[in-house]
Amino acid sequence: MNFSISRRKALLGASAIGATTLLASCNLLQGDQTDALKALIDKISNDILKDSPETCTSLVIPPAQVGGPYIGRVSDRSKAAETARNTMVAGWIDELEKINPRNLKGTDVLSHSIALTSAKYSHDAAKFGFGDAGYGSPNPYVISQLTGAYVGFPDFMASQHEIKDQADADGWLSRLEGFAKQISDETSRMVEDVGKGVVPPNFIIETALKQLNTFKSTAVNESVLVTSLISKANAAHLDGAALGARATTIMNEKILPVYGNLIAELEKLKTTSTADAGVWKLPQSADYYKTALAYWTTTAKTPDEIHELGKSIGADMTKQMDEGLKALGHSEGSVGTRMAKLSEDPQYVYPNTDAGKATLLADINKLVVAMQAKLPEAFATLPKAPLEVKRVPVYTEAGAPGGYYQSPAPDGSRPGAYYINLRDTAAWPKWSLPTLTYHEGIPGHHDQISLAQEATGLPFLRSKLLWFGAYGEGWALYSETLADEMGAYANDAAGRLGYLQSMAFRAARLVVDTGLHHKRWTRQQAIDYMVEATGDTVDSITTEVERYCVWPGQACSYMIGRVEIMALREKAKTELGDKFDLKIFHDKILLEGPMPLAVLAQVIDEWIAERKAA
C-alpha cells in the first residue's frame, strides 16, 4: 500500500474506466439507491482508514470512527496484507456495480462513478503480482529511493504524530516497533519480487543505499525519531529523557538491525542489477506501462501519442524561452545553454550555506504573501487553511523531488506544507522560485487540496481521500499559467523565463517518461534530453530522471492534466461568451474534489449547459 500524508504519494487513483455514463440524466427505473450508495461510500472510506493508521493521524480521525485507538499502529506492509487489500478492492467493485447510476440523483451520480472508476483501476494494477498496487499508485519496486516505509516514516513522525499525553508518547514507541516490522516485511517482499525478475536499476539501488546509510550512520541520540520524541514529550510536560531512552533502545535493538538487513540485501542485489532504466525489462512490461500511464493520466492516450505531444509543446516553449532570453541580452548558443548560464549568474544564486538557505525560504514566503493578495482576482472561494514553507528533511533529500506539498489537517490543527529540497541551492536560482511556489503552494496544490477538504456536501472519500494525478498535478501546472496571466511576472522578465522553463520541463517529462519505459531509452539519454530542453542542472535533472524510473507514468500527469484544463476553459469561454466567469469556472474545477479528466469534462459540460440556459 502506498499511503502517504502528502499528495506526492497518492492514496487512491483512477483511470477513465466507466466515466462515460457519469452525468447522464437519472431516471428512477429501479428505485432510489441513494442510501445504499452513501452507506457503501462510507464503508470504503472506513476500510481505507482502518487499513492506514498513518492516514488517520494525518486527517485527525476520531478513534471511534475507525473502531478504536490507532495512534500506536502503522500500516501492514506484508505480502499477506497487500493480497488482502486487493481482495477488499474487488469487493468494493462488486458492491458498487450492484448500484445503477440511473437510480441516483445529483452529486451521488458523480460519487458512484468516481468510486467505481478508482476501485476498478486500482484493482487492475494489482494483477501483475509485484511491487505495490492495493489502492495506491502502481509502483514496480517495493524499495527504491522514493518507495518504502523508510522514505516517509521519520518525517511523518516528526511532522504529524502529536504528543499531548502519555498515551501519545506510548503510541510513538509502539509505532517505532511497527516501523521495524514494516522494513522487515518490505525487505521480504523485495526479495520475493527479485525472484520474479523485478529488480531496480543499479543507480536506483545506489541512491537508496545512500539514504539508508545516512539514516543508519546518524548517532541514535541525534535521530529525528528520538530527538523529536524528546522535544514533543517535554513540551507536553512528560519525561522526555525517559521516553528518549526507551526510543533509543528500540532503535538499537529493532530498527537499526532491520536497516542493516535491508542494506545488505540491496548491496547484494546491486552486484547483479543492470543500468536498464525502464519498466520494459519487467514481466508483462507493455501492459504494465499502459496500466501505469492510464492510472496517472486518467486517459487512454498511448505512449507514442504522449511522446509526440511532449515534443510539440516543448518546441513552443523553446521558442518563447528564446524570445525571453534575447530580451535579457542572452542571444548566443542554444536555449538550454543560455538557460544554464542564467542559472549560474551570481545575481540569481543563493549561497549554499545555512544563511543562504534561510534567505531562500524567506523569499518564498514573500512570494506566498504577494500571491495571496492577488487570489481574489481569479477565485470566488479561497481556502481557510494556512500554508507553511518547509525544507525537505536532510535524511531524504538525496532522492526526494525538488518540491512537494503536504496536506493540512482537516480540523485546522496543522497547516498545509510546501516542501522545497535544499540539498544544493544551485538548483534554485531566484528566477525559478515563483513558478514553483505557484505550483506547490498557491494557487496550486494548497488551494486545490485545501478547498476539497473544506468543501461542503462531499462524501469524505471525495473530499479527503482521493487523489488523481492528472487532476491534481494538472491543476498545479495550470496554476503556473494562471499566475502568469494574473501578472505575476509583469516586472520580472527572469521570473517569466522560470515559468517557461517549468513548462518546458513538464513537456520534456512526457518525452522522457515514454522514452524510458516505452522506447527503451537509457538513463543518460533521458538526462541529456532534459538538460538540453530546459537548461536545468545535470544534478537536478538526474534526480528527476531517476524519479521517473521508479514512478512510471506519474511524470506524464502534469502536462496531460494542464492541457485538458486549459482546453475546458477555452471551450467554456467560446460557448458562454459574456456568461463565462473565470471565478465560477475555478469553483467548478475545485469544489467537487478530485476526479478523472473524463469526469471533469462532463462536469464542465453540464455547467456550460446550465449557464447557457440561465
Description:
- There is one protein chain.
- Strands 1-3-2 form a three-stranded mixed β-sheet, with helices on one face.
- It contains 23 helices and three strands.
- The protein has 614 residues and is mainly alpha-helical.
- Among the domains are: 1-8 and 24-139, no CATH class; 304-556, no CATH class.
- It has helices spanning 34-51, 53-59, 79-97, 107-125, 149-160, 166-194, 202-217, 224-235, 240-270, 285-297, 303-327, 335-344, 354-374, 433-440, 445-454, 460-465, 469-485, 493-517, 523-534, 538-550, 557-576, 582-590, 597-613; strands spanning 387-391, 403-406, 416-420.
- It is globular.
- 60% of the residues lie in helices and 2% in strands.
Question: How are the SSEs ordered, and which strands pair?
Answer:
Blueprint: H1 34-51, H2 53-59, H3 79-97, H4 107-125, H5 149-160, H6 166-194, H7 202-217, H8 224-235, H9 240-270, H10 285-297, H11 303-327, H12 335-344, H13 354-374, E1 387-391, E2 403-406, E3 416-420, H14 433-440, H15 445-454, H16 460-465, H17 469-485, H18 493-517, H19 523-534, H20 538-550, H21 557-576, H22 582-590, H23 597-613
Parallel strand pairs: 1-3
Antiparallel strand pairs: 2-3
